[in-house]
Amino acid sequence: MENLDIVVLRTLKAWREAGHQALLTTVVRTWGSSPRPVGSIMALCETGAVVGSVSGGCIEDDLIAQYSKAHAIQNAPPLRLKYGISADEAHRFGLPCGGTLELLLEFNPDTKCLNDLIDSLSKGQLTQRITHLATGAITLKSTDAPSELQIDDTQLINTFGPEYRMLLIGAGQMTEYLATMALFNGFAVTVCDPREEYRGAWSVAGVQVKHDMPDDLVESFKPDRRSCVIALTHDPKLDDLALLAALATEAFYIGAIGSRRNNLLRQQRMMEHFEQTESSLARLRGPIGIYIGSKTPAEIAVSIMAEVLAVKNGVPLPRDMDVAFAKNSHEGPPIDPTAPVCFTGR
After folding, report:
1. Which of 80, 264, 286, 316 is spaced 20 to 30 Å from 10 by Cα?
2. Bridge-partner residues for 290, per DSSP?
3. Terminus-to-terminus CA distance in the chain, angstroms?
4. Could you tell me the sign of the dihedral formed by the alpha carbons of 108, 57, 152, 71, in that order?
5. 332 to each of 137, 327, 328, how far by Cα in Å?
6. Which secondary structure element, helix H or strand E, spans residue 6, and what is its range?
7. Please, where are the H alpha helices in 84-156?
8. What is the reported pLDDT for 285?
9. Which domains does the chain possess?
């Protein structure tokens, strides 16, 4: 499943290439609570078809009513609209109490510019789309760093990034659950497992499945700030070198499944055999996930996906949501790592 922005842009391009009038709507400002964040986009065709979202639905209904006819979508300069200025209007449009949002409507976006933007994103290039408000003219500019949407009296700058990527080491049952959730959250998912017996049973469509050794694949995958690497095999021969390779990259999330005790053993191995330190391993997460009392593979995958999204969105998690802290509080510290290993828990 592609990133929602890419889906919106591709659909809008298809409408324009088919000769339809259409508009692109961007959330440019919000006050108070709002259903969708700044930078969210939605496209509307003259037929009434909609892709994307700028609110919980009521604003979309109003836009459809106003613009779902060809004569209502003219070749005009961009238009700024505000919804929810008064309490009555906020209630009418289903906005949270006190919520107000401002939209920018762009009429009949140029097909070539849409194609160039999509092509840039498909190549993994972070791209600024600059809309000149007086004319609607578009300028595209490559950039190296994500940035917040900017708007003033002359231009709108919205930064579009390539898809977030998730590399999963191991093709077991939990990986299937996690990969499915990641796809629905707009991640491009790659699964790596050199073990044929695991790859042969893989059943999730839309995921790239590789047979390389995991550390080699991490090198070719080239994780960046929009990438995460998660080891799920419980096998040090597969997990450890891949995690070490990932720690040398800018991946925003690096973690491994395992109990508190297994996590301690992993850190000890890396420090003893690979010259790692507590500082160099600080970005390595484990046990991964948030504490929700998860027991089944599906529940554990939910907890991992929640933590990945929190890190991606820059949301600090309360200490009592940390798996190790919560389990230490409820169950006591992990068993002595020198005792025989049993891979039965987290």
Report:
1. 80
2. 322
3. 30
4. positive
5. 62, 7, 4
6. helix 4-17
7. 87-92, 111-122
8. 95
9. 4-158 (no CATH), 164-331 (3.40.50.720)
Amino acid at 81: L
For residue 332, give both structure tokens: 């006591």
Calculate the CA 195 to chain-centre distance: 28
Give the pairing of strands 50-52 and 41-45: antiparallel
**How far is residue 242's CA from residue 5's CA, in Å, rounded to a whole number?**
31
Please write the tens of the pLDDT for every residue from 150-182: 999 999 999 998 789 999 999 999 999 999 999
Q: pTM (2 decimals)? A: 0.74
- Whether the CA torsion 335, 341, 345, 346 is positive or negative: it is positive
Q: What is the DSSP string of 178-195?
A: HHHHHHHTTEEEEEE---
Lowest mean pLDDT segment, chosen from 69-78, 204-213, 335-344? 335-344
- The answer for residues whose C-beta is within 8 angstroms of residue 261's C-beta and 6 or more apart is 334, 335, 337, 341
Instruction: Determine how many CB atoms are found less than 10 A away from the CB of residue 146.
Output: 11
64 class by beta-carbon count within 10 Å (0-12 exposed, 13-18 middle, 19+ buried):
middle
